[in-house]
Every structure is written in C-alpha cells, then in structure tokens.
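User: I'm putting together notes for a lab meeting next week and I want to include a structural view of one of the chains we've been expressing. I don't have a solved structure, so I'd like a prediction I can at least talk through. The sequence is below, exactly as it appears in our construct file.
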Amino acid sequence: MPQDETPTSPPRSWVEIDTAALGHNLRVSREASGCAIMAVVKAGAYGHGLETIARFLESEGVEFLGVANIGEARRIRRAGVLCPIYLLGATWELEREEIVARNVTPCISTLAEAQSFSDIAARHGVTLPVHIAVDTGMARGGFLPADVAASLTEIEKLPALSIEGIASHLSSSDEDEVFTNIQISLFSKTVAELGGSSRFRWIHLSNSGGILAYPAGPCNLARPGLMLYGISPIPQFQEKLQNVMSLKSRVSLARTVPAGHSVSYGRTYVTTRPTRLATVGIGYGDGYPRSLSGKNAQVFIRGQRHPIVGRVTMDQIVVALPDDSPVTSGDEVELFGANIPADEVAALADTIAWELFTGITPRVERIYHGVAPL
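Assistant: Thanks for the context. Below is the predicted structure for the 374-residue chain, given as structure tokens.
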C-alpha cells in the first residue's frame, strides 16, 4: 500500500487543552492582581504545548511571556510570536549572545552578568532592556537587598543596558504566610528606597499563590503560572479557576479473570473472586506516574470512577470494574481532568500538579479546543 494511503489511527493517549478555560484563568489573574501580566510558559507551558499556548496568550494581550531559558525563547520566536519575552533566571556566558540577538529581556543577578550583557549589546549596536533581580529569600539568584543600591548605581553606568524593571520571587506563598509577608515587606521597602515607579517601568514579585492570596504592594506586573493552567496552589481559591488540561486514554481490553489471578508486575494485587478488568493504554512512559501504584488512584469511564489495581507499567494500567460493567474496548478513559482533579492525582502520587503536568511525555498527543495547534 502506498505510504500516503496508509490509515492513521487515533491516538491511544492524549491530552485535551481548553483554551477558553485558559482565557478565563488569565482574566482571573488580571482581576486578582490588578496588574499587567507576565504569563509563565516555561517547561512547554507546563506541559500544555509551548508554541500554541504562547501564541494564544499573545493574542490575549499579555505584556510578557516568562521562560526558563533561551531555548524556550528561541522556539517562541521561531513560532512567530513577537510578545516581549523575559528570562526568569540567571544566565551563563555562552547564552548571552543569543539572548541579545533575539531581544529577550534578562534578569540581572550580578555586576559581572550586567557587564557581559552590556558588552554584547554594544557590539550588536542595541540597548538591551534588563530587570534587576532581588533575592528576598529564594536564593536562586539576585542581589541581596543590602547590596542592590550600590550595584544599581554601577549598572546604570553601563552604556548598552536599559534598566526597565525590578523583580523578586516568593518562595512559599502556598505554604508560609508569615514568611511570604516578610518577603513582600522587604521587597516593597527595597523598591521604595530605590525610587519605585519613578525609576522602574515594571515591578514584579507575585507568582500564582501571591496573586490569589496577597496584596500586589508596589507591583504593576504579576507572573501567573500554575493558576493559568487551572490549578490553584492554595486550595481555597480553586473554585475561581477552570480546568484546562484533561489526560485521556482508551480501554484496549475488557475481560473477566478468575479468583486468585495476579495483576501486573510484582503480583501486588491478586483477585479474591472472579473480577472484571479493563486494560488501559497509558503508563509512566506517557507521564502517568508509577508512584500511583497501590495508592487507590481512580480513572473515569462512562460516567463512573473505577480504581486502578496492580502496578502502573510503562505503557498500560489495569482497572477493576463492577461485574455488570458495560465498559468495553475503545471506551474513553479520563486519568485527570474535569472529573478526576489533577491535584488529587498529584497528591496520591506524592508530588505536585506542576510536576504532573510537565511530566506528560511527547508521545501523548496534544489536542486543542478553541485554537488551531501550531
């Protein structure tokens, strides 16, 4: 049979991504923060698909897209996205030429980093916008508050840099209210001493937890990440957000096995009576965590929850069904989504929703509702 006539099967496992829900969560971010928005799209837009999500968020008018490294910025630019891009962490020397060439905004953590960027920008004949990073308690980078004023004076002397903003990052906004307020206070005091909005066009601190639970303070820019994708890091605000990603698969086989029959590797589950089982075509090779084995995790099929039994394997899981279940081969299975919350699955796997989303592997097809994929 000629190659172009070979039939293409539907995906065995896939994620459905609802951009209308993403747009809703973006509106919540704006309303809760009262700020302009830097939409965080690092790690493949938290597993949702970097280029397509970046393009959608640009169409929604976000002021910045936040990325972890120049490789992510490169992909966004090659996708034709023109929105300003901000690098969320410190850089090393061999990244900086491309950062300048692609007009990506870095944060500055040291005088040496600032000097390097200025030299490269001068060589390119451009002025590079930069933001000053302040370490208020995260320790991943930034100037200590006591050192910022003197360092800023030196950076302002560099001819090819334009200090556009100042930023810090909350380390525990979903866990430690006392320390979060300390960080907010320290950042606010530091910004005020440096001249505030008269000196900086953009002032930003809040992540999703900060946006939902704390005042913006002196900030006019906020950095929502997880909340854009439908999960609140602080449970009490979950009802404000809409689910964006649903992980799905299909039943490949449904049958009844006898009493005393072992299920999956290691024989951790053995039937005590004749039991109807469904095999589902997804596993840890797709990003469904192996650590869910033996944790009473459930899936959603035909309007009902059903428990996973035995170990999660690389490509398949096994689900126990009622004796009279109509579940059959080809039925759709929700692993998480509208009916099985992602944060519930993450908690059972002893992880966080961030890791669950970003762990969905490339072999899982992304299907977008409301926007054409890139």
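A couple of points you could mention at the meeting. Residues 5 and 360 are 30 Å apart (CA to CA). The chain has a mean pLDDT of 96.

User: Perfect, that's what I needed.
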